[in-house]
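#lab-general

N.A. 3:47 PM
ok so I finally got the sequence cleaned up, no stray characters, all 496 residues accounted for. can someone with queue access submit it? mine expired

B.Y. 3:52 PM
send it over

N.A. 3:53 PM
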Amino acid sequence: MFYTYNFKAQKWRASNDDVFFQLFTPISTRQKRAWCSVHQRWEACARSASGRLRFECGNPILSPFAAVNDWTLSKVEVVPDDALDTVKVRADLVFTYFCGGTKRCQYAYRTWRLCMKSGFIVPYESSEWLSGLDIKIPDSIASDIQNYLSEYAESLVGKKLSNSSPKSGMEALSDFVVCPACPQLADLRGFLGPQYSQIVDRKNSNPYQDVCDYIHVKPFKRMRRIFDKNPLALPVYGVLKRWGFCDVNVMTKFLEDKRLCEEYFGNVKYDFKTKRIVMRDESMFGALFYFRGEAANDIVTIVDRWLKESLSVQPEKNAMNNLIKAMKDGYNNFFDAAQMYYSRGAAVPDTLKKRIQKECFTREIHDALVEAFPRTYKSSALNEEIPYLEKDKILNATLKDERNAVYEFILPKDTNELYDLGSQMHNCVGHAYRRKALERQSIIVGVKENGFYSACLEINPRFNRIVQARGVCNANLTCGMKLIVAKWAKERGISY
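B.Y. 4:20 PM
back already:
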């Protein structure tokens, strides 16, 4: 079965006849204009009194739009194989661009083999340019594919099943193939590791309970409803119990926050040897952090240590609310503050310690910790000039983007300027990277956007590579800042 988009009916239509390729009208989202092939120019579009789309010249638009310099879904082919309980899906895409004023197109496709018998999904891409591209299969087509898979699942499990996954498109279909009775369990493959296939029986009508029994978690009544929308809530619930939380009403607020669970527990694993839920922090941030150590090695260790103090001075509900607030201030901000506190706890004033016991590691606590060590890190007596080589001077630069925004790349002259950079960026670069800057293990560059610090870069001089690029409060860089940093780095031969 072949599916193509019918522009007149504004919907995807199925047909037994193949179409080699579909015609498209290029549109520039930046100029908000479409390409008129008759006059060979960009023109504005508007609907006529009859509701038909037309160019400003009056010519009708006869084909669907395709964004310039982007991939557009052109056709979808669905081939069911009843003998193998398999559905093959092929998505054809077209990339529209202009070269010398002439419209050009490049074609590529991606295929998936969804095998219900084995539970395997075999993808294939005809071009490396499709790598990482999120191809959205229209809901109407995904529904037809789901009907085939549901029939195959009935012969496997023994009863007709619908797809309960909260996802859409190929993600939902793939999860259904992995575990028809409970597609959400597909998200726990990383958590369960190599034992996943032994724990989850695809022919079982209730594999959810099997997983609960295996990881020794006794779920409460609302847990299944929460799990259906946020599968990671199941192992997170086990961690919350380990931390000392008992009230399910208090824990529900955390478990229902999918973004929070994914941000902090994306690397959670189940250690089948020790029968415990553990963390494997494999992020660049975790590998490069200056205060790496047993004092605050991962989120489980940090919160476990904090709660032992916190639950002794405030009720469980307040502790949970403060914990959630601190976590929402940002992953890197949370770790920054925790590792500063647990590595130099003896130097923290008692009043700040009492605040931390109640408030956890919020952005305000992070900044208060930075200010708690001024004599250690900033003073005229301790101020040291940061040594730079002659070739490092080209790192100081001023660039402009298409909006005429001014970006200044600045090398801190001394450790006091480095400290000021960290204070304004709300990060720990002023003290955690002081020694590395003085010993030229790292080169720190501050980036001002229209006069205000907006980014902080760490360059490894040995490999001439940017190893960290963060915004205020260790946030990810904006798309505009990423482009400017990439341009600046390329002009100076720095890998990014």
